[in-house]
Write a structure and sequence with these properties.
Blueprint (H helix, E strand, L loop, with lengths): L18 H12 L2 H11 L4 H29 L3 H9 L5 H30 L6 H11 L2 H5 L1 H29 L2 H6 L9 H18 L1 H4 L5 H30 L4 H7 L3 H31 L4 H17 L3 H14 L1 H14 L17 H16 L4 H18 L16
């Protein structure tokens, strides 16, 4: 494995991985506490019958989106930010670097703060340990990301089966406590939410992750492996997280699996689940930041960018900024999916399903068609009352398709000057 994990180039055939490896890394990424909390809001608003089909539809749409990008990533060997160079231009792609990188550092701060606060609350440690623990975990969780794909693969091979086992134990115990599905079906919703809003919550919570899951699906040996592994993570894995949060709320009035396990009397398992759940998402998150950062700065020093990102995330966590970041990060979740829409349209319509190699491609500074399509998609998502993430993807992809047919001077790509500055 190349030490830098190819942050600025295609993944060569020699570094490609099989189905098990890709699947466990992506599942580790989607096993995320915030997704369970989203499931908790659904658990209060729907009957068990409605809930199950909403979870299936929401995660199927999310999985289809992520798997489509995974196919492109495997075919090209590129990350989303490198694909951004084709559809946004050499300089224009810095927009996607910034937005994608910022969301990941924000979620990293949230995860770093969460594990410290929950650990202190769960174990009865003194409160003054919160900040030292944030510093410890802020830098500790980035170690597997610094190692790269191999480090995250190693952690996920252990963590994912363990978390699956813990979740099955918890769900089985919960169903016994609730007297099975018969008992659950007798519960009445306490909140109101439309079906469209519920599907939006499911998709919106992790679509920014789905847009960047290309960082690992690009390592797949075949497009089939990339698609199956991504669907396993974003349809089944993410769906399981939403279901766990929803059932936890229905039965115990707790969305987080850690709180549910404590309520069930499994304190040791709860602490283990907390560590594995947060760590397998944190290292993926900071890896995403590093990939975006390397493209932004045009540097191969991925490990240095990883540590720098962990430092920023830790400062945000210690400073209490993580509380203020959540609404902003959810808002950015509206602006990220249109990037995927432009990438898809650019790959299939402009490049006919095959990118040239990055080293040989003559790319403009700004791809005005791509940037315009992205702006239209982001605007449509922001103002859409129904399913904003999907509307953003569809409008961005449709706009790009239309703009490709428009031959206008103001939309023509501006190639960089051959003279080096």
């Amino acid at each position: 494995m190349h030490l830098t994990d190819y942050p600025l180039s295609e993944v060569p055939t020699s570094a490609r991985k099989g189905l098990l490896s890709i699947s466990v890394v992506l599942l580790g990424f989607t096993f995320f506490t915030a997704t369970m909390w989203a499931g908790g809001t659904l658990g209060q608003a729907f009957s068990i019958g409605q809930l199950l089909w909403i979870i299936v539809i929401g995660n199927l749409l999310l999985g289809a989106y992520a798997a489509t990008l995974a196919y492109i990533a495997c075919k090209s060997g590129l990350t989303s930010v490198l694909m951004g160079r084709f559809c946004f231009g050499e300089r224009g792609s810095k927009l996607s670097d910034f937005i994608l990188g910022f969301t990941q550092i924000g979620w990293y701060a949230w995860g770093t703060a969460t594990i410290a606060l929950v650990l202190v609350r769960t174990t009865g440690m003194p409160e003054w340990l919160e900040i030292p623990l944030m510093v410890l975990f802020g830098f500790g969780f980035c170690v597997t990301a610094m190692i790269g794909y191999k480090g995250m693969d190693w952690l996920s091979r252990f963590a994912v089966p363990a978390m699956m086992l813990f979740i099955i134990i918890s769900l089985f115990t919960g169903l016994v406590d609730a007297r099975g599905f018969a008992g659950l079906s007798q519960q009445t919703p306490t909140e109101s939410m439309s079906v469209a809003a519920a599907i939006t919550v499911i998709i919106g919570t992790f679509i920014s992750g789905g847009t960047q899951a290309t960082n690992w699906s690009r390592f797949a040996k075949t497009p089939k492996i990339a698609v199956i592994a991504t669907l396993a993570a974003f349809f089944i894995g993410n769906g399981l997280m939403v279901l766990t949060g929803a059932l936890g709320t229905l039965i115990y009035q707790q969305a987080d699996i850690v709180d549910v396990l404590i309520a069930q009397g499994f304190v040791t398992i709860a602490v283990l689940m907390l560590f594995l759940n947060i760590w397998t998402t944190q290292d993926n998150t900071i890896y995403n930041f590093a990939v975006a950062g390397c493209n932004l700065l045009r540097t191969e020093k991925r490990r240095l960018v990883t540590v720098g990102g962990a430092g920023i995330g830790t400062v945000l966590a210690v400073g209490g900024m993580y509380n203020l970041l959540i609404p902003f990060l959810v808002l950015l979740g509206t602006f990220i999916p249109p990037m995927g829409g432009v990438i898809m349209a650019d790959f299939w319509l402009k490049h006919k399903g095959r990118y040239p190699t990055l080293a040989s491609a003559a790319l403009p500074d700004f791809n005005r068609r791509g940037l315009t399509a992205y702006a239209l998609g982001a605007g449509a998502a922001y103002f859409s009352p129904l399913l904003p993430p999907l509307v953003g993807v569809a409008v961005a992809a449709g706009s790009y398709a239309v703009l490709l047919r428009v031959n206008h001077a103001t939309l023509s790509d501006t190639l960089p000057s051959p003279v080096k500055q």
